[in-house]
Fold:
Amino acid sequence: MIKRLTLFALLLYCFSANAQTKYSPTADNLAARENFQDMKFGMFIHWGIYSQLGAGEWVMHDKNIPYNNYKRLADFFNPQAFNAKEWVAFAKRAGMKYITITSRHHDGFSMFATKFSPYNIVDATPYHKDPLMELAQECQKEGIELHFYYSLLDWGRPDYNFGSPIVNGKPVNGDWDSYIKFMKDQLTELITKYPAVKGIWFDGEWERHSVNWHFDEIYGLIHKLNPAIMIGNNHHLAPIDGEDFQMFEKDLPGNNTTGFNNEQSIGALPLETCETINGSWGFNINDRNYKSVKQIIHYLVNAASRNANFLLNIGPMPNGKIQPEFTDTLTAVGAWMQKNGQSIYGTRGNIIPAQQWGVVTGKSKTLYVHILDMPEQPYIFLPLFKGKIEKVRAFADGSSIKYKQVPEGVFVYTNNLKTDPNDTIIQITTD
Structure:
């Protein structure tokens, strides 16, 4: 009987312990999620010592550069033209509400002051300054939310031991416990030292799907340090316990044109899609495949209609300047957002499925119909529309537009509608 009671007590303890580890977001975290969804448009920044080679952030891996040779790049990384004020002003001018920047990429180089590795921008370069601290302070001053990208993958650290086989949840070579502790220590620095950081954007889990990443401990630590911080992980899978938003790499939610998201289902968390302004994440001197203003606006609108944020990446030059091809395009996008941001910021999506002519966003009792491809016939049709319409008008000038509501949806007539080359917006008000 005593043995049975002991076994029962043990099982009860185990059940209670497991129940306690189930993540329950705080009120502040839930508020942060709502705010995140309202912002809709962010700037992604990939910048590091790899920028000096002008061949993207994977140059060490792709060019088979030995780690000890690659590390020499730190000896002459000296971005004297970096100006946090200019970067934040640029993001605001583009209509972006938050910035996500690489604090440490797969090459293992830390772009911030850290006590846990000498391989960082303050100690290993002639620059000897912390650009992420300057950026954090400027973001706080200007009301731009800051998130840190953090790589789980490390090509160079011996305790990670890149390429090692995984057995029983650990790499055969290396020191996995040491590596997990290292990441916890650095994440603690990023969350406690940098003012008003609002999110952590993990990447690299996909390199070792079978390893025990100790996400319960890592996520638990982050939320203990600051319960409001939002955690996302670019693992290309369904969200796991402890995450606060879900991202889709180079694809709109539900799509898989790149092959990254073939195992990824859409969860109930806030969504974000990330994309590059050309073909590269880090600075690539040969990549001139720049997206047009129209392409970027369409990506942003399509993301919003699917209830997702759009995180658009730039790769600054090694001197810290942002190339003019990026600034010119995003300034034009920002001008469009100044006029039309009401139809994007604070809206929600998944109102009706995407149509051949475009998509719909909405907030409260207002719908914004985005005609991205004007049809040949003089009308568009919104299927499955059930609300009672008060008025329909052109968003640009407020002029009235004829419509006809039927049980199957709504016909909106586009005769004499002044079109916009990027996005012709119609506003529908319901009661």
Observations:
- The first helix runs from residue 2 to 21.
- The longest strand covers residues 98-104.
- Confidence is low (pLDDT under 50) at residues 1-20.
- The chain has ten helices and 17 strands.
